[in-house]
Amino acid sequence: MPQISVVIPLYNEIGNVGPLCAALAAALGSADVEIIIVDDGSRDGSSAALDREAEQRGEQFKIIHLQRNFGQTAAMQAGIDASRGEVIVTLDGDLQNDPQDILPLAQRLLAEDLDVVAGWRKNRQDGLLLRKIPSRVANRLIRRITGVWLHDYGCTLKAYRASVLKGVRLYGEMHRFIPAWLATLTYTDRIVEMPVRHHPRRAGQSKYGITRTFRVLVDLIFVKFFLGYSQRPMHFFGTIGLGFLSLGSLMLLYLFIIKFALGVEIADRPMLIAGVLFFLAGLQFLNTGVLGEMLARIYHESQDKKTYVVRGTVHLEPPA
Ligand code: UDP
Ligand code: MG
């Protein structure tokens, strides 16, 4: 079993496959490392190019072909599922991350007994307005929410302790917030960062457009909601619900008393309407809490559902 597994999601990177594999071989050649490249349904010839590289370079290079384009997160999960190392290092396939940083990250993780060593693109080579500024806002918010003090959540180049990383199932666009999820599974002082190199994309185009900037912000709200309340949605909705329900009940009780004990007519009092509304709103919120609780349960119990389908593998057993 290799000590380190490198996991690289890759989609339509025909111009990068050759240079990427050469750079990986140069940086990791004799090390106790397996390299798992996940072809996320490429249709530009990357698939065949990857097979050729693996064929020529030997067992160290392992390829997983996904049936279609499932997205970067699902592709990473496919690689993580197949990995056998004690440490998993993820990075991009367009050579924006530098394969020479892989071993230093992994070695620090092992030497200092950490769970995450996150790459920090101190010198980020991306557009300012659409990439760097939104990500600065996002990083600040995630720091607040999670208490994990990283400068650069979005950097894909990170080393993880496999046993911890395998404790979360990634779906949607979660790969951007992995340390935030891991912070729910381990102590935050076991998650550290380390500056890494960053280069402009070597060939081809970014797979993400302007819509991602907005998606990240929407995701953030979700992360906040999920991290905060997922364990017990009932605590969130239930508290609001009980508040409204008590207020409504008190108002109705008051009206009941003045009508039947004191004989006061209440027919057109605004309080009657307010009382009924609060009462109903309270019931609704409670109900939402209960539903949320049930959903959370179903979510947790359906964890072993796969988010991707494998078409074929090279130098790897196909997943069961
Ligand atoms: N990627 C993927 N599936 C996708 C989109 C992207 O596997 O649906 C890969 C892509 O090939 C690259 C990495 O994810 O290796 C990061 O993508 P990209 O470079 O386009 O993102 P950016 O660097 O612009 O954030
Ligand atoms: Mg890139």
TrEMBL record:
<feature type="domain" description="Glycosyltransferase 2-like">
    <location>
        <begin position="5"/>
        <end position="166"/>
    </location>
</feature>
<keyword id="KW-0448">Lipopolysaccharide biosynthesis</keyword>
<dbReference type="GO" id="GO:0009103">
    <property type="term" value="P:lipopolysaccharide biosynthetic process"/>
</dbReference>
<feature type="transmembrane region" description="Helical">
    <location>
        <begin position="270"/>
        <end position="296"/>
    </location>
</feature>
<keyword id="KW-1133">Transmembrane helix</keyword>
<dbReference type="Pfam" id="PF00535">
    <property type="entry name" value="Glycos_transf_2"/>
</dbReference>
<keyword id="KW-0472">Membrane</keyword>
<feature type="transmembrane region" description="Helical">
    <location>
        <begin position="236"/>
        <end position="258"/>
    </location>
</feature>
<protein>
    <submittedName>
        <fullName>Glycosyltransferase</fullName>
    </submittedName>
</protein>
<keyword id="KW-0808">Transferase</keyword>
<dbReference type="InterPro" id="IPR050256">
    <property type="entry name" value="Glycosyltransferase_2"/>
</dbReference>
<keyword id="KW-0328">Glycosyltransferase</keyword>
<dbReference type="GO" id="GO:0099621">
    <property type="term" value="F:undecaprenyl-phosphate 4-deoxy-4-formamido-L-arabinose transferase activity"/>
</dbReference>
<dbReference type="GO" id="GO:0005886">
    <property type="term" value="C:plasma membrane"/>
</dbReference>
<dbReference type="InterPro" id="IPR001173">
    <property type="entry name" value="Glyco_trans_2-like"/>
</dbReference>
<dbReference type="InterPro" id="IPR029044">
    <property type="entry name" value="Nucleotide-diphossugar_trans"/>
</dbReference>
<keyword id="KW-1003">Cell membrane</keyword>
<keyword id="KW-0812">Transmembrane</keyword>
